[in-house]
Amino acid sequence: MSSSPPTPLAGHVIAGSDAPEKPQLRVGFIALTDCAPLVIAVARGYDRKYGLEIVLQRQPSWAAVRDRLLSGDLDASHALYGLGYGIQLGLGGPQRDMAMLMSLNQGGQAITLSRALASRARNGAALARHIHGSPERPTFAHTFPTGSHAMLLYYWLAAHGIHPLHDVRSTVIPPPQMAEALRRGDVDGYCVGEPWNALAQSEGQGITVALTSEVWPNHPEKVLACTRDFADRHPNTARALIMALLEACRYLDVPAHREEAASWLALPDFVDAPRDVIASRLLPEKAADGSAPGIRFFADGEANFPYLSDGMWMATQYRRWGMLREDPDYLGIAQSINRLDLYREAAAQLGVPVPVSTMRSSRLIDGRIWDGSHAAGYARGFDIQA
Questions:
Q1: Residue 8: pLDDT above 60?
Q2: What are phi and psi of 123, to 5 degrees?
Q3: Does the pLDDT of residue 2 top 50, yes or no?
Q4: In whole angstroms, what is the distance from residue 139 CA to residue 167 CA?
Q5: So which domain of life are we looking at (predicted)?
Q6: In the chain, what are the domain boundaries?
Q7: β-sheet bridge partners, residue 112
């Protein structure tokens, strides 16, 4: 498949007072299946439809995404949901006001164990028995300290009675290096986005034992992030970028289009992994191993709305695990970061439905309900915490 994009789609280009203040954008991404909206936006010409030229720049790690957003080397990026929240709260690095323009997807991540560990524990309950009955502590990797992989991995472990800060060791590894780290024996398991779980399993190095959608159905995952300063100085650009990516997300809801996306993602400039491995957990139907990918890119806009309660949940977990010593203003932080104003304006232009409520209710793996209410009590209400 050629790596050059097709002819731009027909359609109006935003002009006049609504024209993008900065038409050429450097947009970062990590080699993951869920960068698909960005790849498709460029491949299908949705960026040019709205007066933009997205220049995609692959990044080696989430730390690099953070650093290049803050330095201005990137205008915006595919990012972990919790990356912007961590920066806003000054966790593990410099504090900077951030903006989350939209959600790019929900779900689509997994937890994989080495074959050696999976031979003793093929699920969370068995893993707990093994860990509590052994003097050794296995090492688990995630991708960024404040990211969704870390928080969902910790939640899954704790839901099975495993303390993620005491009973196991943890380390940070960039997503594309996960399968290799498992092969070398550097880690015993990890939580990461696809295709790096599917790749380890296809190579016989690991076994996927849980999908993150089992931890939290339709959980928030990757977002379109930038600094608040960029969004405030370039509101037309931000709206146009949201519109281009909403079109890409809507396109990805069609199964045949995901087949096309798998071929694009396999190219060396993007994910650079076997096309069949990518497709095995990108397509809506169950994979050959019986797992369902659980990834949503659009769902009539539901997967893209930047719910305040999603960001607030991340902050409750930072409090739970001792990354925050005091309760922040959970709602105020989410209102500051999640740019509902820009998202609603962009969605209205495209006729994409917008939920009435900025909160949503979910039941997680331990039976607890999270709906954005009583955040401080929720954060302190777990039996296992720091």
A1: no
A2: -155, 175
A3: no
A4: 10
A5: Bacteria
A6: 16-106+220-366, 109-215
A7: 190, 208
Give the model's pLDDT for residue 158: 98
Q: What's the rounded Cα separation, in Å, for the pair 284 and 297?
A: 11
Of the chain, the end-to-end C-alpha distance in Å amounts to: 50
- Kindly give, in sequence order, each residue whose CB lies less than 8 Å from that of residue 287, ignoring residues fewer than 6 positions away: 198, 280, 281, 293
> Percentage of residues in the chain with pLDDT exceeding 70?
93
**284: pLDDT strictly greater than 80:** no
42, 26 Cβ separation under 8 angstroms: no
Confidence of residue 236 (pLDDT cuts 50, 70, 90): very high
Domains 16-106+220-366 and 109-215 share a fold: yes
CATH class of 16-106+220-366: alpha beta
Query: pLDDT tier at 292 (50, 70, 90 boundaries)?
Result: low
Which segments within the chain are labelled E, that is strand? 24-29, 53-58, 76-80, 98-103, 109-114, 139-142, 169-172, 189-193, 206-211, 222-227, 362-363, 369-370
8 A C-beta contact, residue 353 and residue 301: yes
Residue 56, strand partner residues: 27
Residue pair 193/144 in contact by the 8 Å Cβ criterion: no
Counting every residue written for the chain, the total comes to 386
Residue-wise pLDDT for 164-212, tens only, equals 999 999 999 999 999 999 999 999 999 999 999 999 999 999 999 999 9
Q: Pseudo-torsion of CA 237, 299, 278, 83, nearest 10°?
A: 50
Alpha-carbon span 321 to 82, nearest angstrom = 14
Q: Identify which of 39, 49, 101 has the alpha carbon closest to the alpha carbon of residue 75.
A: 101
Integer Cα distance of 235 and 241 in angstroms: 10
